[in-house]
Design a protein that fits this description.
By secondary structure, this protein is mostly helical. It has a domain of 53 residues. The protein is built from 6 helices and no strands. It is elongated and about 100 Å long.
Length: 138
């Protein structure tokens, strides 16, 4: 049961050493490249995350800035009472209400207008301004 140990020749052992050295150098090169790529990727991701965070912050600040300062610290109940008591009628709202006459139009009138064979001649804003200017000039 004596096992014979393999006796390696001198050339064969040198070949293995050279091969192992090449493999080791290749492994270190691959690991260095991988480490470089990872660090580069991490740097890019961090910069993108920083840009995203700053844009989100700016959007939030813009939304807050669009709220009037007097109303920023109001509680919801105070804001609700403020809205119900102080609803100013802005000129553009009155123009829109006059133009479309939302209060006067009911579903029956809308159906009558849509059932007519001729196309409806509701004045457009351009027509209204022309009519107003023509009546004002004469």
């Amino acid at each position: 049961m004596n096992k014979r140990k393999r006796i390696e020749e001198i050339g064969e052992s040198k070949h293995r050493q050279v091969r192992q050295r090449i493999l080791q150098e290749r492994k270190t090169d691959i690991l260095e490249n991988l480490a470089f790529e990872l660090s580069d990727k991490i740097r890019r991701l961090r910069s993108n995350a920083g840009l995203l965070a700053s844009t989100i912050r700016m959007r939030g600040e813009m939304r807050v800035a669009s709220i009037p300062r007097a109303q920023r610290n109001m509680k919801l109940r105070d804001f609700q009472s403020f809205l119900s008591s102080n609803t100013p009628v802005t000129p553009w709202r009155t123009r829109i209400q006059e133009f479309y006459k939302l209060e006067e139009l009911s579903n029956s009138k809308r159906r009558q207008n849509s059932s007519k064979s001729s196309p409806s001649k509701t004045p457009t804003p351009l027509r209204m301004t022309k009519e107003k200017t023509s009546t004002q000039g004469s």
